């Protein structure tokens, strides 16, 4: 879980789009927000349960079958208002993944490991992900495209940071070793 | 491919259309000039051919004339050519006498006139009808039986008369000779043919004039072709990227140039035919041409009609060499290589050639033509080649010594691309060069040979000389009594003075030769305009026209004394009759007619000094006029070239100057940069051109005539300063545009 | 995702290409290869030589040493005329600026490669018209390039690049002067048509989002090609 990423609010937002089953919710979340780290089912249903308790969602009609996956969740007025407020509020301008990668680079330099190779590998991975998102954009709906764009722009920003860091590696290495 | 080329040529929008129009205009000018020159050469030849027959007398006196004289006729003819004057214009008077019915007949007339008959040229015929006989008609015995045809007339306004006599009559006149055929050789090819024009000399002048005018036109064309060069390069680069071969690009650009050049050539032909009558009227051989003389041979027409467009195509190919190489076009603009010092070589060779011939004048006219023409042309070409190097030199000096930013920027920009800076002013440089050469040569000749002497005594005094050597065998000198009494009573005649032949050797003013005539001082006292006696003398030694050769006007002549008694003068043979008139045409012509009627056997007819020297002076005046035409024509052409170049250069400067303005450089500084970039090459080449021009003039004069250069008159300086001022004005007029062009919109990323 | 790369032809290849501009070296032994139908992005910092590598592959520049192969034939040793013909018949180009001829209309620009190849005007224009519709340029056929917006001009350039059904499409910063949305439209169309026709595409870009349209990317640094993911053919 990363700072700024609020799982409840995100699930709420997805529900505002359309009422869904828990399973669908998890799938959507993973696709757009999971970043390769899928949300555990338990967390999903636990979150949904809390949201229901707070009155932000209600459980719609129940499909035949057993288990919580069969429940359809629907957003309430309160939930919608919550989403609205959260949307209007700007997100904390903090580096995200950068903190993790930064740590990796600094450690690599300290330990004399090939930092450039790691960064190149990261870039490759980023581009791979970006390719996937691009494919989604081209084959999905307009809303899907918007969401994909969001990811793409961020990933591109990461790429920029990676390029700059690579260019700075020598200076960084000197600073680290001193 | 050609269709594509046409499409591109015609669809270039306003900028492209303006460019093509300017090229077309420049080509039209060039073609017109070229055609005029070719036609001029043909005209000189044609006119000279019509002079040929007047040299028939040369065949009888010189044995060496061979080629060109027609088949000898069975019966010889007596022939005498003399020059008469009317109102300052020369009349060619041919007295002929046939000895039989198979005598040679001159061109333009069906037969030889018999005694009491004459043929007159159309102009002379008209004069005879419109002028009182006492002024003209009474000179010629007989009546007019016909008009001389065109084939015998050198010019439409030639005054010619062929008078018939009996052989006995004519054979007694001094100077008459027997000929068996009419001369048909070109006067410039035969010795002794003094009637006609120095064709070789004229052609030399024509060629230099043509070169002097053509070079600025060529520069103009080159400048115009470079307009919108950047956009055209981009366009061709785009085509190359997509896969156009270099050859296809050549074809496309060739089509473009051909269209403009072909249109320009057609217009040029039109201009030539339009101005042909006006051209024919310019008497730069001394006599005007018939319109049809200015003909173009088939070869000439074909050469120009196909050669010019071909040349334009070739030039366009050359200009596109850079894009031939790279489809990446202008994305990489490499600094052109700096001009090297070897560029001075052709100029040095040209001057050197003229200097070489300064001491060693070639013997034949042809040799002279080759030497001077090649020297001057080489110098011109040398100036054009050396121009960029000189510009670079000047600009480097300017940049090194710059203390202000504008000077520094201008100096660096110029030294970075001196070819561009020079191109704009190259036409002007050539114009100034030709102007300086022409002015220097003519001013010096006039100063040395003397300006046409006019006014007062020189144009009002009619002198009739009776040189002893011009008298026929056994013919006595005229005596005082043979001078017609009616001469004094002609209205307008002030005095009639008789000058006697000087029997003694008296020292005179001209070195050791004594003045050939004597006159009582009392006579001289009556006519103070002719000078005065040395104090106390009774008889003075004088020149037969009472003026003396080469005397400048307004310097009163003091004639030296002659040791002869005044009473014995009347027995002496008469050397000359001097008639002082009031200068009116009727008085002079009536006096002349009376004298001619009284002394019809004179070798030379009475004339004023103005008329006698008029022939040479006329030529000189004509050359002056020609020089003026060249100057007045070449300067505007050069100015056009400059204007086009500066306007075009302005759009080249759009981007870099907008950038400079954005970074905070003031508009005033940029204006100074533009001004300096154009004005510095202008002044540098102006100085070099005038200096070289005078140098070339000096070398030519030293070689051909032994004179040294005289400083030119004020008019020359005026013209040069005016030309420079106008050029600077053109440059200055573009400065206000700079503000608009370098506005912030231009710097947007396009 | 794709068929075994070794079974597909190598469409275009560079081996140890060295090229300098005056004294400045641009490429110091760059090698890469592209299989037929692939979309490859060439990325790298500015000044790294990526555009120069593209120009060499496309036969625009001739390397000082090294070899360029297209479809098994040497490209760097043939003359200027042959390379021009190669570009005309087998390659397409979408560069960042200024590749349209301002004096021609949009459809004439698109038809230009065909006209240069000797096609008659009517036949060439007939072949270009479907592209206008395909790329959303309806109604713009008679416009001059100055009257087109940036995105429209790039799409016209794209049409021109594809009209001759080239084997390889070369793009150098195709969206560099466009805003994101317009650039996206251009890239969508480019990749869409390329995939449909099996065109090999080589894109030079410094933007990740543009490179994301490609199947893989190669990095150019200091005149050499480095890529972390093994080049499917070379390795």
Describe this entry's structure for a reader.
The complex is a heterotrimer of chains A (178), B (750) and C (235). The mean pLDDT of chain A is 78. Chain A has helices at residues 7-17, 22-34, 41-53, 77-88, 97-110, 115-139, 142-177; strands at 20-21, 57-62, 71-75. Chain A has seven helices and three strands; from the N terminus they run H-E-H-H-E-E-H-H-H-H. In chain A, helix 1 crosses helix 2, helix 1 (7-17) packs across helix 4 and helix 5 (97-110) packs parallel to helix 7. With 178 residues, chain A is mainly alpha-helical. Chain A is 70% helix and 7% strand. With 750 residues, chain B is an alpha+beta fold. Chain B has four domains: 1-69 and 201-334, no CATH class; 74-182, no CATH class; 379-452 and 613-750, no CATH class; 457-608, no CATH class. Chain B has helices at residues 2-10, 13-51, 56-61, 122-130, 167-171, 199-225, 229-242, 246-280, 298-319, 321-325, 344-359, 365-400, 405-416, 418-449, 457-460, 521-526, 585-598, 609-612, 614-652, 654-662, 667-704, 714-733, 735-741; strands spanning 77-86, 89-98, 117-120, 143-147, 160-164, 177-179, 461-465, 493-501, 517-520, 532-533, 539-542, 558-559, 574-581. In chain B, the strands form three sheets. Chain B has a six-stranded mixed sheet. Chain B has a five-stranded antiparallel sheet with strand order 7-13-8-9-11. In chain B, strands 10-12 form a two-stranded parallel ribbon. Chain B is elongated. The two termini of chain B are 30 Å apart. Mean pLDDT of chain B is 80; it is low at 62-67. Chain C is an alpha/beta fold and 235 residues long. Chain C has helices spanning 50-57, 80-90, 106-116, 121-134, 150-163, 180-197, 208-211, and strands at 10-21, 24-35, 39-43, 65-70, 73-74, 91-94, 168-172, 200-204, 216-221, 224-226. In chain C, the strands form two sheets. Chain C has a six-stranded mixed sheet with strand order 6-7-8-3-9-10, sandwiched between helices. Chain C has a four-stranded antiparallel sheet with strand order 2-1-4-5, covered by helices on one side. The longest helix of chain C is centred in the C-terminal third of the chain and has 18 residues, at 180-197. Mean pLDDT of chain C is 87; it is low at 1-7 and 230-235. Chains in contact: A-C, B-C. At the A-C interface, helix 6 and helix 7 of A face helix 6 and helix 7 of C.
């Amino acid at each position: 879980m990363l700072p700024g990423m609020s799982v409840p609010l995100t699930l709420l937002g997805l529900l505002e789009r359309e009422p869904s089953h828990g399973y669908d919710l998890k799938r959507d979340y993973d696709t757009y927000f999971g970043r390769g780290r899928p949300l555990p089912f338990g967390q999903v249903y636990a979150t949904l349960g809390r949201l229901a308790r707070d009155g932000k969602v209600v459980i719609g009609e129940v499909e035949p079958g057993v288990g919580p996956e069969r429940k359809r969740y629907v957003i309430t007025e309160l939930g919608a208002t919550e989403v609205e407020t959260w949307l209007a509020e700007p997100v904390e301008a903090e580096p995200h993944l950068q903190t993790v990668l930064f740590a990796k680079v600094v450690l690599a330099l300290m330990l004399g490991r090939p930092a450039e190779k790691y960064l190149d590998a990261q870039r490759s991975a980023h581009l791979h992900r970006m390719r996937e998102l691009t494919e989604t954009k081209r084959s999905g709906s307009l809303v899907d495209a918007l969401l994909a764009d969001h990811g793409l722009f961020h990933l591109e920003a990461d790429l920029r940071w990676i390029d700059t860091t690579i260019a700075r590696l020598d200076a960084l290495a000197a600073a680290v070793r001193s | 491919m050609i269709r594509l080329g046409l499409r591109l040529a015609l669809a270039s929008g306003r900028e492209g259309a303006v460019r093509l129009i300017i090229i077309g205009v420049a080509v039209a000018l060039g073609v017109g000039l070229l055609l005029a020159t070719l036609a001029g050469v043909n005209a000189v030849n044609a006119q000279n051919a019509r002079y040929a027959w007047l040299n028939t007398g040369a065949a009888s006196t010189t044995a060496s004339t061979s080629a060109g004289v027609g088949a000898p006729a069975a019966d010889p003819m007596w022939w005498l050519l003399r020059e008469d004057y009317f109102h300052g214009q020369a009349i060619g008077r041919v007295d002929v006498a046939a000895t039989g019915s198979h005598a040679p007949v001159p061109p333009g007339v069906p037969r030889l006139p018999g005694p009491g008959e004459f043929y007159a040229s159309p102009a002379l015929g008209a004069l005879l009808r419109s002028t009182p006989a006492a002024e003209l008609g009474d000179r010629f015995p007989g009546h007019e039986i016909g008009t001389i045809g065109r084939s015998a007339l050198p010019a439409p306004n030639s005054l010619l008369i062929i008078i018939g006599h009996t052989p006995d009559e004519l054979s007694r006149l001094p100077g008459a000779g027997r000929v068996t055929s009419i001369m048909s050789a070109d006067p410039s090819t035969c010795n002794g043919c003094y009637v006609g024009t120095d064709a070789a000399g004229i052609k030399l002048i024509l060629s230099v004039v043509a070169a002097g005018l053509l070079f600025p036109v060529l520069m103009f064309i080159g400048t115009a072709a470079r307009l919108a060069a950047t956009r055209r390069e981009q366009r061709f680069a785009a085509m190359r990227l997509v896969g156009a071969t270099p050859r296809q690009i050549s074809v496309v650009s060739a089509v473009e140039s051909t269209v403009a050049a072909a249109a320009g050539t057609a217009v040029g032909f039109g201009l030539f035919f339009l101005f042909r009558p006006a051209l024919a009227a310019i008497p730069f051989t001394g006599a005007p041409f018939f319109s049809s003389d200015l003909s173009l041979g088939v070869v000439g027409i074909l050469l120009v009609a196909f050669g010019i467009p071909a040349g334009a195509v070739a030039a366009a190919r050359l200009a596109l060499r850079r894009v031939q190489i790279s489809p990446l076009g202008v994305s990489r603009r490499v600094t052109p290589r700096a001009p090297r010092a070897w560029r001075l070589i052709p100029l040095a060779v040209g001057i050197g050639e003229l200097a070489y011939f300064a001491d060693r004048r070639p013997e034949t006219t042809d040799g002279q033509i080759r030497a001077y023409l090649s020297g001057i042309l080489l110098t011109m070409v040398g100036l054009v080649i050396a121009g960029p190097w000189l510009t670079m030199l000047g600009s480097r000096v300017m940049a090194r010594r710059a203390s202000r930013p504008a000077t520094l920027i201008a100096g660096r920009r110029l030294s970075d691309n001196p070819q561009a800076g020079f191109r704009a002013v190259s036409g002007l440089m050539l114009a100034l060069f030709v102007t300086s050469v022409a002015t220097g040569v003519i001013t010096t000749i006039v100063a040395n040979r003397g300006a046409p002497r006019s006014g007062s005594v020189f144009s009002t005094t009619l002198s009739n000389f009776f040189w002893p050597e011009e008298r026929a065998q056994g013919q006595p000198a005229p005596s005082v009594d043979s001078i017609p009494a009616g001469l004094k009573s002609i209205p307008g005649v002030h005095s009639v003075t008789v000058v006697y032949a000087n029997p003694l050797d008296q020292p005179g003013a001209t070195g050791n030769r004594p003045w050939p005539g004597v006159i009582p001082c009392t006579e001289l006292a009556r006519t103070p305009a002719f000078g005065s006696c040395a104090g106390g003398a009774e008889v003075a030694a004088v020149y037969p026209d009472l003026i003396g050769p080469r005397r400048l006007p307004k310097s009163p002549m003091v004639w030296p004394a002659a040791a002869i008694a005044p009473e014995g003068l009347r027995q002496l043979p008469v050397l000359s009759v001097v008639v002082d008139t009031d200068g009116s045409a009727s008085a002079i012509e009536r006096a002349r007619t009376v004298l001619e009627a009284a002394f019809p056997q004179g070798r030379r007819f009475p004339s004023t000094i103005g008329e006698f020297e008029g022939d040479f002076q006329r030529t000189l005046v004509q050359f002056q006029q020609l020089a003026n035409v060249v100057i007045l024509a070449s300067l505007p052409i050069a100015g056009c070239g400059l204007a086009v170049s500066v306007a075009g250069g302005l759009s080249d400067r759009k981007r870099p100057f907008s950038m400079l303005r954005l970074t905070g450089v003031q508009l005033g500084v940029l204006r100074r940069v533009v001004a300096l970039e154009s004005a510095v090459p202008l002044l540098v080449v102006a100085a070099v051109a005038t200096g070289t021009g005078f140098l070339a003039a000096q070398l030519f004069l030293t070689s051909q005539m032994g004179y040294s250069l005289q400083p030119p008159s004020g008019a020359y300086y005026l013209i040069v300063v005016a030309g420079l001022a106008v050029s600077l004005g053109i440059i200055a007029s573009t400065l206000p545009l700079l503000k608009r062009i370098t506005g912030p919109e231009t710097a947007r990323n396009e | 995702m794709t068929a075994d790369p070794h079974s597909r032809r190598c469409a275009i290849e560079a081996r140890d290409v060295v090229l300098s501009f005056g004294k400045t070296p641009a490429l110091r032994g760059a090698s890469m290869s592209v299989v037929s139908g692939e979309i490859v992005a060439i990325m790298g910092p500015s000044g790294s030589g990526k555009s120069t590598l593209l120009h060499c592959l496309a036969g625009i520049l001739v390397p000082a040493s090294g070899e360029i192969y297209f479809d098994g034939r040497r490209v760097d040793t043939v003359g200027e005329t042959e390379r021009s013909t190669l570009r005309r018949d087998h390659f397409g180009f979408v560069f960042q600026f200024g590749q349209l001829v301002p004096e021609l209309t949009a459809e004439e620009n698109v038809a230009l490669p065909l006209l240069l190849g000797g096609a008659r005007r009517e036949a060439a224009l007939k072949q270009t018209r479907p592209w206008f519709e395909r790329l959303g340029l309806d109604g713009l056929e008679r416009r001059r390039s100055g009257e087109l917006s940036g995105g429209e001009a790039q799409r016209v350039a794209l049409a021109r690049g594809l009209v001759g059904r080239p084997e390889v499409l070369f793009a150098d910063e195709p969206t560099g002067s466009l805003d994101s949305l317009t650039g996206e439209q251009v890239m969508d169309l480019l990749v869409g048509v390329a995939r449909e026709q099996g065109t090999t595409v080589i894109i030079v870009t410094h933007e990740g989002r543009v490179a994301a349209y490609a199947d893989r990317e190669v990095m150019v640094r200091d005149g050499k090609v480095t890529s972390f993911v093994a080049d499917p053919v070379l390795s």
